[in-house]
């Protein structure tokens, strides 16, 4: 059989049907708005910038993990789990939203924190922002030093919980596996329908990429739809080569999970990791400028770890003339503003 013989007649309807067949726990406010960034576009004078508002997914102050958790918590419930276990950095948005989704679903939540960022980054880093919210949401916690093998720690914690009689469901860091990434294939479908309604041709999609589920789901979803435009991930942790490899591996697994017959081209995965700065979670001048610009020109709050660095990359690329002046460039706002409260001093908040 040729590849084209495997192509469904209506790829959007086919993708929707495959996604609708997956167990799902509705916990995100969808669809999220797609809005023009008029004042930022005029200020930069390079391209037509748009914002896909995944900071508005609801679920305990919003963010991209809500879309993944719809499918992860759906799977946990389908398997009869009574507890979810996951891990993340101390100011993890993923951990915060997992605790919220578990609370909504009536599941116990246990989190493993890696002290990945030197807490000296800010006096509030270890206690405020997401750490405060996750405590409020009722999650149990264990703490581990930087560079712990967190996947191994997760497996050990799950074994402990099992020995105590619990039925744990393991959610990887960032919710990034094929089940979680399905939430971002669903976002691609949502954007496809939104762009059609608005008569908008999207030329580029840009967003912050970390544990890779967001980009993998978007790339797999756009591939399933036969909807070709570059999806550019702005890295926040790894260098370009390993980041692209990780995204590609998960994008392929997600495409297979979604029963997409046609091979995913390697070129569909692009990451730019020039905006990481000194490391994960560490502030850069570009991030601070991006957070302040979006706040003051658009009334939009980015975050210091992901969307702020992603937007710093987008701003720099616009200034360098990377996009055609009339190109429609959508930035996916993945949320995370709660972490701002862990970076008070970085934004000029004194003692
Ligand atoms: C987790 C996260 C990301 C990165 O998404 P991945 O799917 O992990 O690549 C981006 N922005 C925010 C605010 C996040 O919390």
Characterise the protein shown here.
The protein is of the alpha/beta class and 351 residues long. The chain has helices spanning 11-20, 38-44, 65-78, 93-105, 130-136, 150-163, 178-198, 213-225, 240-257, 285-298, 307-319, and strands at 34-36, 48-53, 83-89, 108-115, 140-145, 168-171, 204-209, 231-235, 270-272, 328-333. The strands form two sheets. A six-stranded mixed β-sheet has the order 1-2-10-7-8-9, sandwiched between helices. It has a four-stranded parallel β-sheet with strand order 5-4-3-6, sandwiched between helices. β8 (231-235), α9 and β9 form a beta-alpha-beta unit. α1 packs across α7, α4 (93-105) packs parallel to α5 and α10 (285-298) crosses α11 (307-319). The longest helix is centred in the middle third of the chain and has 21 residues, at 178-198. The mean pLDDT is 96.
What's a quick, concise take on this entry?
The chain is of the alpha/beta class and 351 residues long. It has helices spanning 11-20, 38-44, 65-78, 93-105, 130-136, 150-163, 178-198, 213-225, 240-257, 285-298, 307-319; strands at residues 34-36, 48-53, 83-89, 108-115, 140-145, 168-171, 204-209, 231-235, 270-272, 328-333.
Describe how the helices and strands are arranged.
Elements: H1 11-20, E1 34-36, H2 38-44, E2 48-53, H3 65-78, E3 83-89, H4 93-105, E4 108-115, H5 130-136, E5 140-145, H6 150-163, E6 168-171, H7 178-198, E7 204-209, H8 213-225, E8 231-235, H9 240-257, E9 270-272, H10 285-298, H11 307-319, E10 328-333
Parallel strand pairs: 2-10, 3-4, 3-6, 4-5, 7-8, 7-10, 8-9
Antiparallel strand pairs: 1-2
Bound molecules: pyridoxal-5'-phosphate.
Pyridoxal-5'-phosphate binds at residues 63-64, 93-94, 174, 176, 208-215, 303, 306-307, 334-336.
């Amino acid at each position: 059989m040729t590849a084209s013989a495997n192509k469904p007649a209506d790829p959007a309807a086919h993708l929707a049907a495959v996604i609708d067949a997956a167990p799902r726990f509705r916990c995100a406010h969808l669809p999220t708005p797609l809005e023009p960034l008029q004042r930022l576009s005029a200020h930069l004078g390079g391209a037509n910038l748009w914002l896909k508002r995944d900071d508005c997914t609801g679920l305990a102050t919003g963010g991209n993990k809500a879309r993944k958790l719809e499918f992860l918590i759906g799977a946990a419930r389908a398997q009869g789990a009574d507890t979810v276990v996951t891990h993340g950095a101390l100011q993890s948005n993923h951990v915060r939203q997992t605790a919220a989704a578990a609370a909504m679903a009536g599941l116990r939540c246990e989190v493993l924190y890696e002290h990945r960022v030197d807490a000296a980054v800010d006096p509030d880093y270890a206690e405020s922002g997401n750490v405060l919210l996750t405590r409020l949401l009722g999650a149990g916690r264990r703490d581990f030093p930087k560079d712990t093998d967190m996947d191994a720690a997760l497996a050990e914690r799950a074994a402990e919980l099992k020995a105590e009689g619990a039925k744990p469901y393991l959610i990887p860091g960032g919710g990034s596996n094929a089940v979680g990434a399905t939430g971002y294939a669903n976002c691609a479908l949502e954007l496809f329908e939104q762009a059609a309604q608005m008569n908008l041709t999207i030329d580029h999609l840009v967003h912050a990429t970390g544990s890779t589920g967001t980009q993998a789901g978007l790339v797999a979803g756009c591939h399933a739809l036969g909807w070709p435009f570059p999806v550019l991930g702005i890295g926040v942790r790894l260098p370009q080569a390993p980041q692209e490899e990780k995204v590609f591996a998960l994008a392929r697994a997600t495409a297979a999970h979604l029963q997409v017959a046609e091979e995913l081209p390697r070129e569909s995965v692009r990451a730019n990791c020039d905006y990481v700065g000194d490391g994960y979670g560490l502030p850069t001048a570009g991030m601070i400028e991006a957070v302040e610009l979006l706040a003051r020109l658009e009334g939009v709050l980015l975050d210091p770890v992901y969307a702020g660095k992603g937007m710093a990359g987008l701003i720099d690329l616009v200034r360098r003339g990377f996009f055609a002046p009339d190109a429609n460039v959508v930035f996916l706002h993945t949320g995370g503003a709660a972490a701002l409260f862990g970076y008070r001093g970085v934004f000029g908040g004194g003692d």
